[in-house]
Amino acid sequence: MYALVEDNAITRIFTRPRGFTLGDVQYPQNIFSLWTKSEKEAIGIYEIEQDNTNKKNEEWYTNTDVSYAFAGGKVTASYGTATAKAIEGLKTLKKAVFDRQAAQSLAKYDWYVIRNTEAGTAIPSAITDYRTAVRAKCNSMQSQVDGAADVDALAALYVYVNTGTEESPVMEKPLGEWPTDPNG
């Protein structure tokens, strides 16, 4: 992205190369790729440097619109202070995802339960154990989500951290993982 700077003020943003008129001169779009940095800056075209210092993960935060500034011979695009999304709404969404994931995992083996109910055929213990583990894991993850005090604590539940050593890393997230399907 580029900005046109006139009299030390940004007057136009170019999100993509395009021809433009400056004064009485029509410039083609290829000046953005063919001209050197100093040639572009001589007519007031500056490449925009992105400053993502304040930008936060949009899953958890609402970022401000980008603002542009010209200082010290460069144009910078930056974000203002991000606002955390409503914690209760995020918790509801995350728990609903766990419910759907658990339901999908259990649905594969519902036929065992139906067959047991209708024909009295025993359910293999590996399937019973798996279904019990899926329900327990879903409840555990939902409890962890409920226990998050704020958005940062909730987001931290999803971040993988090394619980091993540097030589033998073990990457785990606080929420843990779903039980392993007995049939792969």
Instruction: Enumerate the spans where pLDDT stays under 50 for 5 or more consecutive residues.
Output: none
Portion in beta strands: 15-25%
Largest sheet: 5 strands, mixed
In spatial order, strands of the major sheet run 2-1-5-8-7
Question: Which structural class best describes the helix and strand composition?
Answer: alpha+beta
Oligomer: single chain
Report helical residue fraction: 25-40%
Instruction: Give helix and strand order, one letter per element, not per position.
Output: EEEEHHEEEEEHHHHEE
Taking all residues together, what is the mean pLDDT?
A: 96
Give a structural overview:
The structure is a single chain. This protein is of the alpha+beta class. It has two domains: 2-83, no CATH class; 87-172. The chain is built from six helices and eleven strands. A five-stranded mixed sheet has the order 2-1-5-8-7. Strands 3-4 form a two-stranded antiparallel ribbon. β7 and β8 form a beta hairpin. The protein is elongated and about 90 Å long. The protein starts with a strand and ends in a 12-residue tail after the last strand. 9% of the residues are buried.
Summary?
With 184 residues, this protein is of the alpha+beta class. The chain has helices spanning 31-34, 37-42, 87-107, 110-119, 125-147, 151-156, and strands spanning 2-6, 9-14, 20-22, 25-27, 45-51, 61-62, 66-71, 74-79, 83-84, 161-162, 171-172.
